[in-house]
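Q: Hi! First time doing this. I have a protein sequence and I read that you can turn it into a structure. Is that right? Here it is:
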Amino acid sequence: MSHRRILSLWFPRLSAERLLRLRRDALLQPFAVVGLRANAHLLVSVTPEAEAAGLRQGQPLRDATAMCPTLITAPENPAEDAAFLRALRRWAGKFSPWVAEEAPDALVIDLTGCAHLFGGEDALMAQVEEDCADLGLSLRASIADTRGAAWALARYAGAGSAQMRSGDAIRQEAHATRSRAARRFSRQPGVTARPSGPAGLIAAPGQTRQTLAALPLPALRIAPAAVEALGRLGLRRVEDIMGMPRAALARRFGAEVLRRLDQALGVDPEPVNPAAAPLHFAMRMSFPEPIGLIDDVTAGMDRLLPPLCAKLVAKGRGARRVRLEAQRSDGRVEVVEVGLARASQEADRIRPLLLLKLDQIDAGFGIDRLRLEAAETEPMHAVQHRGHLEAAADVIARQGADTALEDLIGKLGTKLGQEAVVRLHPAASNIPEKSAMTLAAAWSLPTAEPWPEPRAPRPIVIFRPEPVNAPPERTPPAQFRWRRRSFDLRFAVGPERLLPEWWLDDPEWRSGPRDYWRVEVAGGERLWLFYAHGGETSGGWFCQGLFA
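A: Yes, that's right. Below is the predicted 3D structure, encoded as structure tokens:
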């Protein structure tokens, strides 16, 4: 059985070089990407020109600008960096199907049984370096028997002796200690990895232990606190802990140190788990001659929709957003897109929504190709097991319920926009204007419980409080003015005292507690008045609603 061979690709300047690729010009000045770490602006990625000017990763921005006034900076964008790393993962799939990301700036590839397809490991490494040079990316790569060893060689092989001090320069110790230190210091462990080009390093099969021996302890991917604790005892290289008693090592420095050492040596398996292929649901149809009639587009759509729904059913997904693309003869693409109020995998529910927008397609000189895609999908489960027969029956009844309301919401959303069709949902608040939430109907479900009854009648129209000109009395005044009209009080019912949530600072309630009254005036109008007792702002009488 052949040895496992792992390729580690580290892009030490990924963030900066991604931005340089977007500039599409030659930037000879120092350039760095700035990120926020612990409320401090630090350099998270620098170019070779910036390193030549004395800048380094992790340096504070103020120090960097003082050292290099011509430094050009750009803000960090982790989401775009992650997307770029995913694109590099797809590129690395040409070398092996087993490719995984090591965020934020590395890839790991299982090359077992694949290197001979490229003429051997040396030729494969040369191809990797050539591709990265064409992409404008700096690269540190290595091949080893284990994932941990490949990771260590890519980052720490060839480090200077100043970074790998053995701790043996303790000349004031006892004679026996100095003798052992001198013997260990004179022994130079040989690194069996051979260089392959300017950025690659290949460790010979079966030589993992000898390859790792001379590397510093951070190459094992152990915590910095453990590295510091080991360094205080003079243990600074991997070989220093290889022969130590395992029980004492784990007891004093933690089991994580042993686990990382075993992973690097291949004792503890560390497989490469490739990312799953993204779900993709689309169908297309090409025509021998361009089409231009709505009926022809409808016929093409009817042939694409059933197989698309079959793919959704096979994967247990339902479409929430469906896009139809019509590629014209002149190269232009006409696109119509519809959204569903509830995820569906039924052609009869998707087709009417698409028909509503087919008239928006401009055929021009003819359409050569149609493409139908489920742009956004959600999981759909036939039965949801909850542990009780009654719960399962409720789920089956809910999934088999009438979908007429959802279909209507989908059609209205297609014409007006999904956010324009809304529904009210009860909210847990005594504040009148907060007793209901306005939600988009396409992305919410109606309340299953009866709408809660208020403690007192509420007006059919509620608006922001409007000042009422009345004497500063706590009982409803016999006469008052509102909206430039005078009113004579007939009777009043109340009061109902309401207070806001004490844990919130609502600017509308800074006038203090409110006493609400239902009043009827001489003209028959019924108003909803309240008296604010005053707080951070002055109080008084206000009107907030109208009854029928």
